[in-house]
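Work Package 3 committed the consortium to producing structural models of liganded targets before the mid-term review. Because experimental data for this complex are still outstanding, the team generated a predictive model from sequence and the ligand definition alone, so that downstream docking and mutagenesis planning could proceed in parallel. The input record is reproduced below exactly as it was submitted to the modelling pipeline, together with the SMILES string for glutathione.
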Amino acid sequence: MTIKIYGGTLSPFVRKTVVFAIEKGIDFELVAAFGAMAPPEFRKASPFGKIPAMVDGDFSLADSTAIVTYLDAIKPEPNLIPTEAKARAKTIWYEEFGDTLVAACGGKVFFNRFVAPRFMGREGDLKAADEAQANEFPKLVDYLERVLPASGYLVEDRFTLADIAVCSPFATMAHVDCTVNPTTHPKAYGYIQAITARPSFAKLLEQERAMVKPKEPA
Ligand SMILES: N[C@@H](CCC(=O)N[C@@H](CS)C(=O)NCC(=O)O)C(=O)O
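The resulting structure, written out as tokens with the ligand in place, is given here.
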């Protein structure tokens, strides 16, 4: 039975899960789920209604970290969560940094510039979005610029969950004009460009750009 992943990839957490599954070569079906569009089995899988959720036969689970942990256990190769102690812990640290990106900036810019006006029929708090981009975003990008290794990968000089988890929030922010400046942060800029150019990301991002494009006036 095919694994079902519930959500939409504009969410950085859903995209993380979906890119991880694609890179692992795991068959899955993405089922649209958000608010009123959520099928009943999604509610059972995600007790607090958050995306992503996953159903694999009679097993259901929510939370992107829990889901990638499960996917990694059922298909260990190719390895995307290092097994060596320090590299594994660093991978989880960068996964948490991805969560920090969403909490400090990504959620505010994406919700207020896109979700509120497009799905909730109301203006977002554009001041809060601008403030997060002006004050929080640069600190987060400074950190990434500082820690990026010359290899272009965050952990073990190879592609891992750390790269997926960090670049996914940047991809969501880029949809609403919150982007890294190549002049001030050339390493972070080049890194995000390279990781999101991988086929696993690129195909999703192309579909998402069409969804985010402003609607033509009727
Ligand atoms: N820690 C969770 C966070 C999931 C999350 O916050 N998802 C957001 C979308 S990006 C959501 O479902 N928001 C709707 C809500 O909070 O009701 C994960 O990693 O999956």
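Reviewers should note the following from the model. The first strand starts at residue 3 and ends at 6. These observations will guide the Year 2 experiments.
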